[in-house]
Amino acid sequence: KLGIRVYDDYGHHPTEVDATLRALREFERPEERGGRLVCVFQPHQHSRTRFLLDEFAHAFEQADVVIVPHIYFVRDSEVEKTRVSAQDLVDRLEAKGTRALHIGSFDEIVEHLEIHCRPGDLVVTMGAGPVNRIAKDFLRRGGASTTLNCGYGEGFSVRQVLDQVAQVAGKPLRIVESPRRAGDPAQLVARADRIR
At 125, is the pLDDT very low, low, confident or very high (cuts 50, 70, 90)? Predict the structure, then answer.
């Protein structure tokens, strides 16, 4: 999009969300271009969202606006689905002073971004579900764009990064591997200089 930077990130745990938003705020500095950091976050699992609701409420402090679609329903029971909603997360975020709103469908979110985003804004979609489609659709719908994917090239694989985190933490990580999302690269290798 003209003058709007768009990123997609797989982060779906409060710690990952906070770290990613802090890094993007520091690296991109949207406020220096008169922009905002707009995060579209799709919670992954109703049970995780319910158990980590307070942590999520703190994880978005770097975002100027948070848009929350429906929670990605996977591996939970129908009963668990009734115990928490995307609106519950929005309410917690607003109670912490973060501007947040719940928009259910991806198409409606893309429409909202088209209407409300302005040059200088930084948009990041986050989550383990298919939320990455919002970023792709937003970019496809208009204007000249530069799509950046830092996941190709030379550098470190996700497994290598996780191994280093475990080494620094001094304890093994519980790693759950799942199938790639539609549109994800076959191999993810990070190289920061691809961003520039």
Answer: very high
Please give, one letter per residue, the 3-state secondary structure of the chain: CCCCEEEEECCCCHHHHHHHHHHHHHHHCHHHHCCCEEEEECCECHHHHHHCHHHHHHHCCCCCEEEECCCECCCCCHHHHCCCCHHHHHHHHHHCCCEEEECCCHHHHHHHHHHHCCCCCEEEEECCCCCHHHHHHHHHCCCCCCCCCCCCCCCEEHHHHHHHHHHHHCCCCCCCCCCCCCCCCCCCEECHHHCC
pLDDT for position 94: 95
- pLDDT bucket at 181, cuts 50 / 70 / 90: low
- Residue 75, burial from CB neighbour count under 10 angstroms (0-12, 13-18, 19+): exposed
Query: Taking the mean position of all CA atoms in its chain, how far away is CA 71?
Result: 13
